[in-house]
Amino acid sequence: MRLKNVLSSTLALVLSLVAAPQAEAGIKGKGHLEVEKIRLWDLGTSLKVTGVLEGLTPYEDVKIKVIAIGDGIAKCITPGGNAPPGQNPVEIEDVTVKGFKLLENVDKEEPFKVTTGSYGREIQGAPDCPSSNWTEKIVDIRFRLVKIIVKHDDEVLKVVCKIDLPSTYGPVPEKYVSCSEDP
Description:
By secondary structure, the chain is mainly beta. It has one domain (2-181). It is built from one helix and eleven strands; from the N terminus they run H-E-E-E-E-E-E-E-E-E-E-E. Strands 4, 5, 7, 8, 9 and 11 form a six-stranded antiparallel sheet that branches. Strand 8 (135-152) and strand 9 form a beta hairpin. The radius of gyration is 19 Å and the shape is elongated. The N and C termini lie close together (11 Å). Mean pLDDT is 74; it is low at 1-36.
Protein backbone atom coordinates (compact mmCIF):
# COMPACT_ATOMS: atom_id res chain seq x y z
CA MET A 1 0.00 0.00 0.00
CA ARG A 2 2.91 2.35 0.76
CA LEU A 3 4.11 1.94 -2.83
CA LYS A 4 0.68 3.00 -4.16
CA ASN A 5 0.67 6.16 -2.01
CA VAL A 6 4.13 7.18 -3.20
CA LEU A 7 3.27 6.34 -6.81
CA SER A 8 0.11 8.45 -6.81
CA SER A 9 2.07 11.65 -6.22
CA THR A 10 4.91 10.88 -8.63
CA LEU A 11 3.45 9.07 -11.62
CA ALA A 12 2.09 12.22 -13.25
CA LEU A 13 5.67 13.26 -13.93
CA VAL A 14 6.83 9.82 -14.97
CA LEU A 15 3.90 9.07 -17.19
CA SER A 16 3.99 12.25 -19.22
CA LEU A 17 6.93 10.60 -21.01
CA VAL A 18 8.99 13.72 -20.41
CA ALA A 19 12.32 13.46 -18.59
CA ALA A 20 11.51 13.42 -14.89
CA PRO A 21 14.76 13.13 -12.93
CA GLN A 22 13.10 13.51 -9.52
CA ALA A 23 10.17 11.12 -9.96
CA GLU A 24 10.47 8.50 -7.23
CA ALA A 25 8.57 5.42 -6.19
CA GLY A 26 9.67 3.74 -2.97
CA ILE A 27 10.44 0.05 -3.01
CA LYS A 28 10.33 -1.68 0.40
CA GLY A 29 12.52 0.86 2.17
CA LYS A 30 15.49 -0.13 0.01
CA GLY A 31 15.74 3.25 -1.70
CA HIS A 32 13.60 4.39 -4.58
CA LEU A 33 12.81 3.69 -8.17
CA GLU A 34 13.49 6.82 -10.20
CA VAL A 35 12.25 6.77 -13.76
CA GLU A 36 14.16 9.41 -15.68
CA LYS A 37 12.57 9.00 -19.08
CA ILE A 38 10.45 6.59 -21.07
CA ARG A 39 10.24 6.58 -24.86
CA LEU A 40 8.17 4.50 -27.30
CA TRP A 41 9.12 3.41 -30.83
CA ASP A 42 6.72 1.75 -33.26
CA LEU A 43 8.65 -0.91 -35.18
CA GLY A 44 5.77 -2.00 -37.42
CA THR A 45 4.54 -5.21 -35.79
CA SER A 46 6.44 -4.71 -32.52
CA LEU A 47 7.05 -1.86 -30.06
CA LYS A 48 10.25 -0.75 -28.30
CA VAL A 49 10.15 0.93 -24.88
CA THR A 50 13.26 2.53 -23.37
CA GLY A 51 14.00 4.33 -20.12
CA VAL A 52 16.25 4.51 -17.08
CA LEU A 53 15.59 3.04 -13.65
CA GLU A 54 17.56 4.74 -10.88
CA GLY A 55 18.04 4.38 -7.15
CA LEU A 56 17.70 0.60 -7.22
CA THR A 57 19.22 -1.65 -4.60
CA PRO A 58 22.39 -2.97 -6.27
CA TYR A 59 22.79 -6.66 -7.07
CA GLU A 60 19.08 -7.44 -7.11
CA ASP A 61 16.98 -8.46 -10.10
CA VAL A 62 14.34 -6.31 -11.79
CA LYS A 63 11.73 -7.67 -14.20
CA ILE A 64 10.17 -5.41 -16.81
CA LYS A 65 7.18 -6.52 -18.87
CA VAL A 66 5.62 -4.57 -21.74
CA ILE A 67 2.20 -5.33 -23.21
CA ALA A 68 1.24 -3.33 -26.30
CA ILE A 69 -2.24 -3.36 -27.84
CA GLY A 70 -3.29 -1.89 -31.15
CA ASP A 71 -5.17 -2.43 -34.36
CA GLY A 72 -3.56 -4.67 -36.93
CA ILE A 73 -3.32 -4.06 -40.63
CA ALA A 74 -3.26 -7.29 -42.61
CA LYS A 75 -2.80 -8.26 -46.22
CA CYS A 76 -4.87 -10.89 -47.98
CA ILE A 77 -2.77 -12.96 -50.37
CA THR A 78 -4.25 -15.27 -53.02
CA PRO A 79 -2.98 -18.84 -53.39
CA GLY A 80 -1.04 -17.52 -56.41
CA GLY A 81 0.84 -15.04 -54.19
CA ASN A 82 -0.95 -11.82 -55.26
CA ALA A 83 -2.39 -9.12 -52.99
CA PRO A 84 -5.35 -7.93 -55.09
CA PRO A 85 -6.44 -4.29 -54.90
CA GLY A 86 -9.76 -3.75 -53.20
CA GLN A 87 -9.08 -6.57 -50.71
CA ASN A 88 -6.29 -4.77 -48.84
CA PRO A 89 -5.60 -3.57 -46.25
CA VAL A 90 -7.68 -5.53 -43.77
CA GLU A 91 -8.11 -4.01 -40.29
CA ILE A 92 -8.07 -6.27 -37.22
CA GLU A 93 -8.95 -4.96 -33.74
CA ASP A 94 -7.11 -5.66 -30.49
CA VAL A 95 -3.84 -7.21 -31.59
CA THR A 96 -1.55 -7.80 -28.59
CA VAL A 97 2.23 -8.18 -28.49
CA LYS A 98 4.34 -8.74 -25.36
CA GLY A 99 7.95 -8.27 -24.35
CA PHE A 100 9.91 -9.19 -21.25
CA LYS A 101 13.31 -8.19 -19.86
CA LEU A 102 15.13 -9.47 -16.79
CA LEU A 103 17.80 -7.13 -15.47
CA GLU A 104 20.07 -9.24 -13.29
CA ASN A 105 22.25 -7.82 -10.51
CA VAL A 106 21.20 -4.27 -11.26
CA ASP A 107 23.32 -1.28 -10.42
CA LYS A 108 21.94 1.85 -8.76
CA GLU A 109 21.18 3.21 -12.23
CA GLU A 110 20.01 0.82 -14.91
CA PRO A 111 19.01 1.72 -18.47
CA PHE A 112 16.49 -0.60 -20.01
CA LYS A 113 15.11 -1.45 -23.43
CA VAL A 114 12.25 -3.86 -23.96
CA THR A 115 11.07 -4.78 -27.44
CA THR A 116 7.90 -6.77 -27.79
CA GLY A 117 7.73 -9.84 -29.95
CA SER A 118 6.68 -9.29 -33.54
CA TYR A 119 3.21 -10.21 -34.73
CA GLY A 120 4.22 -11.01 -38.30
CA ARG A 121 2.51 -14.36 -38.45
CA GLU A 122 -0.31 -15.60 -40.63
CA ILE A 123 -3.87 -15.74 -39.32
CA GLN A 124 -5.22 -19.28 -39.58
CA GLY A 125 -8.12 -19.65 -42.02
CA ALA A 126 -7.83 -16.05 -43.30
CA PRO A 127 -11.15 -14.99 -41.67
CA ASP A 128 -10.99 -11.42 -43.02
CA CYS A 129 -10.20 -12.43 -46.61
CA PRO A 130 -12.65 -13.45 -49.38
CA SER A 131 -11.66 -17.13 -49.11
CA SER A 132 -10.19 -19.38 -46.43
CA ASN A 133 -7.78 -20.60 -49.14
CA TRP A 134 -6.12 -17.19 -49.08
CA THR A 135 -3.36 -16.21 -46.65
CA GLU A 136 -3.91 -13.38 -44.15
CA LYS A 137 -0.82 -11.84 -42.56
CA ILE A 138 -0.52 -8.87 -40.19
CA VAL A 139 2.00 -6.43 -41.65
CA ASP A 140 1.58 -3.46 -39.27
CA ILE A 141 0.10 -2.63 -35.88
CA ARG A 142 -1.15 0.86 -34.99
CA PHE A 143 -0.48 0.84 -31.26
CA ARG A 144 -2.92 2.64 -28.98
CA LEU A 145 -2.25 1.24 -25.49
CA VAL A 146 0.95 0.24 -23.69
CA LYS A 147 1.26 -1.36 -20.25
CA ILE A 148 4.64 -1.27 -18.51
CA ILE A 149 5.07 -3.45 -15.41
CA VAL A 150 8.24 -3.23 -13.29
CA LYS A 151 8.80 -5.85 -10.55
CA HIS A 152 11.50 -5.52 -7.89
CA ASP A 153 11.28 -8.21 -5.20
CA ASP A 154 7.56 -8.43 -4.43
CA GLU A 155 6.81 -4.76 -5.19
CA VAL A 156 5.15 -3.85 -8.50
CA LEU A 157 4.94 -0.57 -10.43
CA LYS A 158 2.29 -0.52 -13.20
CA VAL A 159 1.95 2.19 -15.81
CA VAL A 160 -0.61 2.43 -18.62
CA CYS A 161 0.02 4.75 -21.56
CA LYS A 162 -2.64 5.62 -24.12
CA ILE A 163 -1.60 6.81 -27.55
CA ASP A 164 -4.14 9.41 -28.75
CA LEU A 165 -3.36 8.98 -32.45
CA PRO A 166 -2.62 5.41 -33.45
CA SER A 167 1.13 5.05 -33.85
CA THR A 168 2.94 4.87 -37.15
CA TYR A 169 6.41 3.49 -37.80
CA GLY A 170 9.11 5.36 -35.86
CA PRO A 171 9.25 7.30 -32.60
CA VAL A 172 5.84 7.88 -31.01
CA PRO A 173 5.52 11.68 -30.49
CA GLU A 174 5.31 12.50 -26.78
CA LYS A 175 2.45 14.94 -27.33
CA TYR A 176 0.16 12.05 -28.33
CA VAL A 177 0.88 9.93 -25.26
CA SER A 178 -0.97 10.18 -21.94
CA CYS A 179 -0.25 7.84 -19.06
CA SER A 180 -1.59 7.00 -15.63
CA GLU A 181 -1.02 4.56 -12.81
CA ASP A 182 -2.65 1.18 -13.30
CA PRO A 183 -3.90 0.12 -9.87
